[in-house]
Amino acid sequence: MTIKPRVTRRAVLAGGSAAVASPHIWTSARAQAAGTIKIGIPAALTGPLGTVGQQTKRGAEFYAKVQNAKGGILGRKIELLVEDTAGNPANCVRKAQEMVERHGVKIFTGLTLSSEALAVVPKLGEWDAIFVSGINGDGRLTADSFVPNFFRANISGPMGARAVSLFLREGKINSVYALGLDYAWGHNSVQVFEDEMKRANKNFIGKVFAPTGTKDYSTYITKIRQSGAEASYQVLQGDDNNAFLSQSRQYGLPDKVTLLTEIVDLASIKAVGDASLGLIGSSRYSFTYDHPKNKDFVELWRKDHGGGLPDTFEGETWQAMQVIQAGIEKANGTDTTPLRTALTSVELDSIKGKIKFRECDHQAVQQGFMVKVVKKDGFETPIPEVIATFPGERTTPGCKKTTYDD
Protein backbone atom coordinates (compact mmCIF):
# COMPACT_ATOMS: atom_id res chain seq x y z
CA MET A 1 0.00 0.00 0.00
CA THR A 2 1.30 3.46 -0.85
CA ILE A 3 0.73 6.76 0.86
CA LYS A 4 -1.71 8.70 -1.29
CA PRO A 5 -0.15 11.91 -2.59
CA ARG A 6 -3.53 13.62 -2.42
CA VAL A 7 -3.66 13.15 1.34
CA THR A 8 -0.06 13.81 2.24
CA ARG A 9 0.72 16.57 -0.21
CA ARG A 10 -2.42 18.46 0.66
CA ALA A 11 -1.03 18.69 4.15
CA VAL A 12 2.45 19.66 2.92
CA LEU A 13 3.20 23.19 4.01
CA ALA A 14 -0.23 23.20 5.64
CA GLY A 15 -2.06 25.79 3.65
CA GLY A 16 0.83 26.83 1.46
CA SER A 17 -0.64 30.18 0.34
CA ALA A 18 0.63 31.88 3.46
CA ALA A 19 4.03 30.26 3.06
CA VAL A 20 4.36 31.12 -0.62
CA ALA A 21 3.59 34.74 0.17
CA SER A 22 6.80 34.97 2.19
CA PRO A 23 9.64 35.66 -0.28
CA HIS A 24 12.51 34.91 2.08
CA ILE A 25 11.79 31.25 2.75
CA TRP A 26 13.99 29.76 0.01
CA THR A 27 16.70 32.39 -0.34
CA SER A 28 19.25 29.98 1.11
CA ALA A 29 20.66 27.31 -1.20
CA ARG A 30 21.83 25.43 1.88
CA ALA A 31 18.28 25.34 3.24
CA GLN A 32 16.99 23.99 -0.06
CA ALA A 33 19.64 21.27 -0.06
CA ALA A 34 18.69 20.24 3.46
CA GLY A 35 15.14 19.57 2.27
CA THR A 36 11.92 19.79 4.25
CA ILE A 37 11.39 18.75 7.84
CA LYS A 38 9.05 15.78 7.50
CA ILE A 39 6.65 15.07 10.33
CA GLY A 40 4.49 11.96 10.18
CA ILE A 41 0.92 12.06 11.47
CA PRO A 42 -0.75 8.63 11.33
CA ALA A 43 -4.05 9.62 12.97
CA ALA A 44 -7.60 8.33 13.39
CA LEU A 45 -9.32 10.69 10.97
CA THR A 46 -12.38 8.45 10.76
CA GLY A 47 -14.17 6.18 13.22
CA PRO A 48 -15.57 6.92 16.71
CA LEU A 49 -12.58 9.12 17.58
CA GLY A 50 -12.31 10.72 14.15
CA THR A 51 -13.26 14.13 15.53
CA VAL A 52 -10.20 13.95 17.79
CA GLY A 53 -7.90 12.94 14.93
CA GLN A 54 -9.25 15.75 12.77
CA GLN A 55 -8.41 18.22 15.54
CA THR A 56 -4.79 17.08 15.68
CA LYS A 57 -4.56 17.34 11.90
CA ARG A 58 -5.93 20.90 11.93
CA GLY A 59 -3.66 21.93 14.80
CA ALA A 60 -0.54 20.61 13.07
CA GLU A 61 -1.51 22.06 9.71
CA PHE A 62 -2.11 25.50 11.17
CA TYR A 63 1.21 25.46 13.01
CA ALA A 64 3.03 24.46 9.83
CA LYS A 65 1.24 27.18 7.87
CA VAL A 66 2.15 29.89 10.37
CA GLN A 67 5.74 28.73 10.84
CA ASN A 68 6.39 28.18 7.15
CA ALA A 69 5.27 31.74 6.52
CA LYS A 70 8.05 32.82 8.88
CA GLY A 71 10.67 30.77 7.04
CA GLY A 72 10.12 27.33 8.55
CA ILE A 73 12.53 25.85 11.09
CA LEU A 74 16.23 26.52 10.54
CA GLY A 75 15.30 27.70 7.06
CA ARG A 76 13.55 24.43 6.19
CA LYS A 77 9.86 24.13 5.49
CA ILE A 78 7.68 21.82 7.57
CA GLU A 79 6.15 19.00 5.54
CA LEU A 80 3.32 17.02 7.11
CA LEU A 81 2.55 13.48 5.96
CA VAL A 82 -0.96 12.64 7.16
CA GLU A 83 -2.61 9.22 6.97
CA ASP A 84 -5.87 7.83 8.35
CA THR A 85 -5.48 4.86 10.71
CA ALA A 86 -9.21 4.64 11.60
CA GLY A 87 -8.02 4.13 15.19
CA ASN A 88 -6.56 0.69 14.51
CA PRO A 89 -3.16 0.10 16.21
CA ALA A 90 -1.97 -2.33 13.50
CA ASN A 91 -2.88 0.22 10.82
CA CYS A 92 -1.00 2.88 12.74
CA VAL A 93 2.19 0.83 12.98
CA ARG A 94 2.02 -0.13 9.31
CA LYS A 95 1.46 3.42 8.09
CA ALA A 96 4.10 4.86 10.39
CA GLN A 97 6.64 2.29 9.15
CA GLU A 98 5.72 3.12 5.57
CA MET A 99 6.41 6.79 6.29
CA VAL A 100 9.84 5.86 7.66
CA GLU A 101 10.84 3.50 4.86
CA ARG A 102 9.41 5.33 1.86
CA HIS A 103 9.55 8.94 2.89
CA GLY A 104 12.39 9.13 5.40
CA VAL A 105 10.19 10.35 8.27
CA LYS A 106 12.07 10.52 11.58
CA ILE A 107 9.64 12.60 13.64
CA PHE A 108 6.06 11.64 14.57
CA THR A 109 3.21 13.36 16.34
CA GLY A 110 -0.60 13.37 16.18
CA LEU A 111 -1.27 9.69 16.92
CA THR A 112 -4.84 9.59 18.22
CA LEU A 113 -5.49 6.60 20.48
CA SER A 114 -3.18 5.57 23.30
CA SER A 115 -3.46 2.00 22.05
CA GLU A 116 -1.93 3.21 18.77
CA ALA A 117 0.85 5.02 20.64
CA LEU A 118 1.58 1.94 22.75
CA ALA A 119 1.86 -0.13 19.56
CA VAL A 120 4.25 2.34 17.92
CA VAL A 121 6.70 3.13 20.74
CA PRO A 122 8.47 -0.28 20.72
CA LYS A 123 9.35 0.36 17.05
CA LEU A 124 10.93 3.79 17.53
CA GLY A 125 14.43 2.46 18.21
CA GLU A 126 14.35 0.25 15.13
CA TRP A 127 13.11 3.19 13.04
CA ASP A 128 15.60 5.61 14.63
CA ALA A 129 12.64 7.98 15.04
CA ILE A 130 11.33 10.44 17.62
CA PHE A 131 7.67 10.54 18.71
CA VAL A 132 6.40 13.69 20.45
CA SER A 133 2.90 12.98 21.77
CA GLY A 134 0.40 15.81 21.62
CA ILE A 135 -2.66 14.03 22.99
CA ASN A 136 -1.96 10.44 24.14
CA GLY A 137 -3.12 9.97 27.71
CA ASP A 138 -2.17 6.47 28.87
CA GLY A 139 0.19 6.90 31.81
CA ARG A 140 2.21 3.84 30.87
CA LEU A 141 3.78 5.71 27.95
CA THR A 142 5.95 7.58 30.45
CA ALA A 143 6.07 4.70 32.93
CA ASP A 144 6.13 0.94 32.26
CA SER A 145 6.15 1.35 28.46
CA PHE A 146 8.60 4.26 28.35
CA VAL A 147 11.24 4.28 25.60
CA PRO A 148 13.98 6.94 25.18
CA ASN A 149 12.66 8.19 21.83
CA PHE A 150 9.21 9.03 23.21
CA PHE A 151 8.27 12.46 24.62
CA ARG A 152 4.89 13.55 25.98
CA ALA A 153 4.13 17.25 25.53
CA ASN A 154 0.52 16.92 26.65
CA ILE A 155 -1.25 16.43 29.96
CA SER A 156 -1.52 12.68 30.55
CA GLY A 157 -4.53 10.69 31.72
CA PRO A 158 -3.15 10.33 35.26
CA MET A 159 -2.54 14.09 35.36
CA GLY A 160 -6.14 14.73 34.32
CA ALA A 161 -7.48 12.25 36.86
CA ARG A 162 -5.26 13.82 39.51
CA ALA A 163 -6.66 17.30 38.79
CA VAL A 164 -10.21 16.00 39.25
CA SER A 165 -9.24 14.22 42.48
CA LEU A 166 -7.55 17.33 43.89
CA PHE A 167 -10.69 19.30 43.06
CA LEU A 168 -12.88 16.73 44.82
CA ARG A 169 -10.70 16.79 47.94
CA GLU A 170 -11.84 20.36 48.48
CA GLY A 171 -15.55 19.61 47.87
CA LYS A 172 -18.43 17.78 49.53
CA ILE A 173 -18.83 14.90 47.08
CA ASN A 174 -17.96 11.65 48.87
CA SER A 175 -19.06 8.84 46.54
CA VAL A 176 -18.17 8.31 42.87
CA TYR A 177 -18.87 5.76 40.13
CA ALA A 178 -16.63 5.61 37.03
CA LEU A 179 -17.32 4.95 33.35
CA GLY A 180 -14.45 4.63 30.87
CA LEU A 181 -13.83 3.61 27.29
CA ASP A 182 -12.75 -0.01 27.04
CA TYR A 183 -9.21 0.52 25.78
CA ALA A 184 -5.82 1.60 27.14
CA TRP A 185 -6.55 5.23 28.02
CA GLY A 186 -9.92 4.46 29.64
CA HIS A 187 -8.62 1.67 31.85
CA ASN A 188 -5.48 3.52 32.90
CA SER A 189 -7.25 6.76 33.81
CA VAL A 190 -10.06 5.04 35.71
CA GLN A 191 -7.52 3.01 37.70
CA VAL A 192 -5.55 6.13 38.63
CA PHE A 193 -8.76 7.90 39.62
CA GLU A 194 -9.90 4.94 41.72
CA ASP A 195 -6.60 4.91 43.59
CA GLU A 196 -6.80 8.67 44.12
CA MET A 197 -10.34 8.45 45.53
CA LYS A 198 -9.41 5.71 47.97
CA ARG A 199 -6.37 7.65 49.17
CA ALA A 200 -8.57 10.71 49.67
CA ASN A 201 -10.93 8.60 51.79
CA LYS A 202 -13.72 8.95 49.25
CA ASN A 203 -16.12 6.11 48.46
CA PHE A 204 -15.27 4.69 45.04
CA ILE A 205 -18.40 2.62 44.45
CA GLY A 206 -17.60 0.89 41.17
CA LYS A 207 -16.59 1.13 37.52
CA VAL A 208 -17.71 -0.04 34.12
CA PHE A 209 -16.20 0.14 30.62
CA ALA A 210 -17.93 0.69 27.28
CA PRO A 211 -16.52 -0.35 23.88
CA THR A 212 -15.59 2.50 21.57
CA GLY A 213 -18.43 3.17 19.17
CA THR A 214 -21.19 2.41 21.70
CA LYS A 215 -24.45 3.97 20.50
CA ASP A 216 -26.77 3.17 23.39
CA TYR A 217 -25.53 4.17 26.85
CA SER A 218 -28.82 3.49 28.66
CA THR A 219 -27.53 0.40 30.50
CA TYR A 220 -24.46 2.32 31.71
CA ILE A 221 -26.61 5.26 32.81
CA THR A 222 -28.85 2.84 34.73
CA LYS A 223 -25.82 1.35 36.52
CA ILE A 224 -24.66 4.82 37.54
CA ARG A 225 -28.11 5.77 38.86
CA GLN A 226 -28.55 2.50 40.74
CA SER A 227 -25.11 2.76 42.32
CA GLY A 228 -26.27 5.56 44.59
CA ALA A 229 -23.12 7.58 43.81
CA GLU A 230 -23.18 11.35 44.20
CA ALA A 231 -21.00 11.78 41.11
CA SER A 232 -20.00 9.95 37.96
CA TYR A 233 -16.50 10.19 36.50
CA GLN A 234 -16.31 9.72 32.73
CA VAL A 235 -13.25 8.89 30.61
CA LEU A 236 -14.91 9.26 27.21
CA GLN A 237 -14.18 11.11 23.97
CA GLY A 238 -15.51 11.67 20.49
CA ASP A 239 -18.82 10.09 19.46
CA ASP A 240 -18.97 8.08 22.69
CA ASN A 241 -18.78 11.19 24.84
CA ASN A 242 -21.47 12.89 22.76
CA ALA A 243 -23.78 9.90 22.98
CA PHE A 244 -23.36 9.60 26.75
CA LEU A 245 -23.91 13.30 27.45
CA SER A 246 -27.03 13.49 25.26
CA GLN A 247 -28.57 10.33 26.67
CA SER A 248 -27.70 11.17 30.27
CA ARG A 249 -29.67 14.41 29.89
CA GLN A 250 -32.59 12.53 28.34
CA TYR A 251 -32.65 10.17 31.32
CA GLY A 252 -32.31 13.01 33.81
CA LEU A 253 -29.00 11.75 35.19
CA PRO A 254 -27.50 15.23 35.86
CA ASP A 255 -30.48 15.99 38.12
CA LYS A 256 -29.35 13.25 40.48
CA VAL A 257 -25.62 12.85 39.87
CA THR A 258 -22.81 15.37 39.34
CA LEU A 259 -21.12 14.62 36.03
CA LEU A 260 -17.32 14.76 36.12
CA THR A 261 -15.01 14.08 33.22
CA GLU A 262 -11.32 13.81 32.48
CA ILE A 263 -11.52 15.97 29.35
CA VAL A 264 -13.84 18.84 28.46
CA ASP A 265 -13.74 19.78 24.78
CA LEU A 266 -15.61 22.19 22.52
CA ALA A 267 -16.49 19.54 19.94
CA SER A 268 -18.64 17.66 22.45
CA ILE A 269 -20.14 20.87 23.80
CA LYS A 270 -21.16 21.94 20.29
CA ALA A 271 -22.51 18.49 19.50
CA VAL A 272 -24.77 18.17 22.55
CA GLY A 273 -25.50 21.84 23.35
CA ASP A 274 -27.22 22.44 26.68
CA ALA A 275 -26.80 18.76 27.61
CA SER A 276 -23.22 19.70 28.49
CA LEU A 277 -24.18 22.46 30.95
CA GLY A 278 -22.83 21.91 34.44
CA LEU A 279 -20.25 19.34 33.31
CA ILE A 280 -17.10 19.63 35.43
CA GLY A 281 -13.77 18.24 34.40
CA SER A 282 -10.07 18.61 33.90
CA SER A 283 -8.93 20.39 30.78
CA ARG A 284 -5.88 19.67 28.66
CA TYR A 285 -6.36 22.93 26.77
CA SER A 286 -9.03 25.62 26.56
CA PHE A 287 -9.27 28.88 24.66
CA THR A 288 -10.44 30.44 27.95
CA TYR A 289 -7.06 30.07 29.69
CA ASP A 290 -5.95 33.49 30.85
CA HIS A 291 -2.39 33.55 29.48
CA PRO A 292 -0.94 36.16 27.12
CA LYS A 293 0.47 33.46 24.81
CA ASN A 294 -2.91 31.75 24.68
CA LYS A 295 -4.72 34.99 23.89
CA ASP A 296 -2.31 35.58 21.00
CA PHE A 297 -2.86 32.02 19.75
CA VAL A 298 -6.66 32.29 19.96
CA GLU A 299 -6.63 35.59 18.09
CA LEU A 300 -4.39 34.11 15.39
CA TRP A 301 -6.60 31.03 15.10
CA ARG A 302 -9.84 33.04 14.86
CA LYS A 303 -8.45 35.26 12.11
CA ASP A 304 -7.52 32.20 10.06
CA HIS A 305 -10.66 30.16 10.83
CA GLY A 306 -13.45 32.68 10.28
CA GLY A 307 -13.87 33.52 13.94
CA GLY A 308 -13.90 29.89 15.09
CA LEU A 309 -12.25 28.88 18.35
CA PRO A 310 -9.44 26.34 18.83
CA ASP A 311 -10.48 23.16 20.57
CA THR A 312 -8.72 20.93 23.10
CA PHE A 313 -6.57 18.83 20.77
CA GLU A 314 -5.88 21.68 18.38
CA GLY A 315 -4.30 23.56 21.27
CA GLU A 316 -2.45 20.50 22.55
CA THR A 317 -1.12 19.76 19.06
CA TRP A 318 0.04 23.36 18.66
CA GLN A 319 2.01 22.94 21.90
CA ALA A 320 3.51 19.64 20.68
CA MET A 321 4.61 21.32 17.46
CA GLN A 322 6.21 24.10 19.52
CA VAL A 323 8.14 21.43 21.40
CA ILE A 324 9.31 19.80 18.16
CA GLN A 325 10.50 23.15 16.85
CA ALA A 326 12.30 24.01 20.10
CA GLY A 327 14.08 20.63 20.03
CA ILE A 328 15.15 20.96 16.40
CA GLU A 329 16.47 24.47 16.96
CA LYS A 330 18.33 23.39 20.08
CA ALA A 331 19.82 20.37 18.28
CA ASN A 332 20.52 22.48 15.18
CA GLY A 333 18.95 19.80 13.03
CA THR A 334 16.75 16.71 12.91
CA ASP A 335 19.28 13.91 13.46
CA THR A 336 17.72 11.61 16.02
CA THR A 337 20.45 11.39 18.67
CA PRO A 338 21.09 15.13 19.12
CA LEU A 339 17.36 15.83 18.81
CA ARG A 340 16.57 13.34 21.58
CA THR A 341 19.19 14.96 23.81
CA ALA A 342 17.86 18.44 23.08
CA LEU A 343 14.22 17.52 23.78
CA THR A 344 15.02 16.17 27.25
CA SER A 345 15.72 19.70 28.48
CA VAL A 346 13.20 21.75 26.48
CA GLU A 347 11.47 24.52 28.42
CA LEU A 348 8.73 26.68 26.90
CA ASP A 349 6.54 29.61 27.78
CA SER A 350 3.60 27.95 26.09
CA ILE A 351 -0.08 28.72 25.52
CA LYS A 352 -0.72 26.96 28.85
CA GLY A 353 2.04 28.73 30.73
CA LYS A 354 5.48 27.34 31.45
CA ILE A 355 6.20 23.71 30.59
CA LYS A 356 9.40 21.79 31.27
CA PHE A 357 10.42 18.28 30.25
CA ARG A 358 11.74 15.84 32.83
CA GLU A 359 14.85 14.03 31.69
CA CYS A 360 13.92 10.87 33.59
CA ASP A 361 10.72 10.02 31.71
CA HIS A 362 10.26 12.75 29.08
CA GLN A 363 6.98 14.01 30.55
CA ALA A 364 6.30 17.74 30.20
CA VAL A 365 5.41 19.16 33.62
CA GLN A 366 2.64 21.76 33.29
CA GLN A 367 -0.31 23.28 35.10
CA GLY A 368 -3.51 21.32 35.69
CA PHE A 369 -6.85 22.99 35.00
CA MET A 370 -10.43 22.35 36.05
CA VAL A 371 -13.30 23.82 34.07
CA LYS A 372 -17.08 23.95 34.24
CA VAL A 373 -19.35 24.19 31.21
CA VAL A 374 -21.45 27.36 31.45
CA LYS A 375 -23.39 29.81 29.29
CA LYS A 376 -21.70 33.13 28.60
CA ASP A 377 -22.84 36.22 26.77
CA GLY A 378 -21.30 36.54 23.34
CA PHE A 379 -21.08 32.79 22.68
CA GLU A 380 -23.63 30.77 20.73
CA THR A 381 -22.91 27.58 22.66
CA PRO A 382 -21.84 26.87 26.24
CA ILE A 383 -18.11 27.23 26.94
CA PRO A 384 -15.63 25.78 29.48
CA GLU A 385 -14.86 28.29 32.23
CA VAL A 386 -11.73 27.77 34.35
CA ILE A 387 -12.69 27.19 37.99
CA ALA A 388 -9.40 25.90 39.46
CA THR A 389 -5.72 25.52 38.60
CA PHE A 390 -3.08 23.29 40.14
CA PRO A 391 0.71 23.53 39.77
CA GLY A 392 2.36 20.91 37.60
CA GLU A 393 4.38 19.68 40.56
CA ARG A 394 1.11 18.49 42.14
CA THR A 395 -0.55 17.04 39.04
CA THR A 396 2.45 15.22 37.54
CA PRO A 397 3.12 11.73 38.97
CA GLY A 398 6.56 10.65 40.13
CA CYS A 399 9.18 9.71 37.55
CA LYS A 400 8.04 6.72 35.46
CA LYS A 401 4.96 6.35 37.66
CA THR A 402 1.21 6.64 37.20
CA THR A 403 0.49 7.00 40.91
CA TYR A 404 0.96 9.69 43.55
CA ASP A 405 2.38 9.77 47.05
CA ASP A 406 0.31 12.51 48.70
List its salient traits.
Rossmann fold, disordered N terminus, 406 residues, seven-stranded mixed β-sheet, 16 helices, five-stranded parallel β-sheet, alpha/beta, 2 domains, single chain
Structural overview:
By secondary structure, this protein is of the alpha/beta class. It folds into 2 domains: 5-155 and 290-365, Response regulator (Rossmann fold), CATH 3.40.50; 158-283 and 367-395, Response regulator (Rossmann fold), CATH 3.40.50.2300. It contains 16 helices and 15 strands. Helix 4 crosses helix 14, helix 5 (89-103) crosses helix 6 (114-120) and helix 8 (157-169) runs parallel beside helix 9. Residues 1-33 have low confidence and may be disordered.
Summarize the structure.
The protein is of the alpha/beta class and 406 residues long. It has 2 domains: 5-155 and 290-365, Response regulator (Rossmann fold, 3-Layer(aba) Sandwich); 158-283 and 367-395, Rossmann fold (3-Layer(aba) Sandwich), CATH 3.40.50.
CATH topology of the largest domain, by name, is Rossmann fold
Unreliable stretches covering 5 or more consecutive residues:
1-33
Characterize the biggest β-sheet. 7 strands, mixed
CATH class of the largest domain: Alpha Beta
Number of helices: 16
Query: In the CATH hierarchy, what is the architecture of the largest domain at level 2?
Result: 3-Layer(aba) Sandwich
CATH superfamily of the largest domain: Response regulator
Strand order within the widest sheet? 7-6-8-9-10-14-15
What is the arithmetic mean of pLDDT? 92
End-to-end Cα distance, whole Å, is 50 Å
Count of beta strands: 15
Task: Determine the strand fraction and express it as a percent band.
Answer: 15-25%
User: Could you say how many structural domains there are in total?
Assistant: 2
